Amino acid sequence: MTSTQTETTEAPFQVHFVGGGITVPTQVDHEGNASWAECFGYGADFIVTPEILEAARRNSRDGRSIFDLSEEEQVARWGEVKLKRGPWPEGKTRHEPGGIRWITAREEAVYRANNLATEGEQKAARARIAAEFGPVPTKQSSTFIVR
Question: Mean pLDDT score of the chain, rounded to an integer?
Answer without folding.
Answer: 86
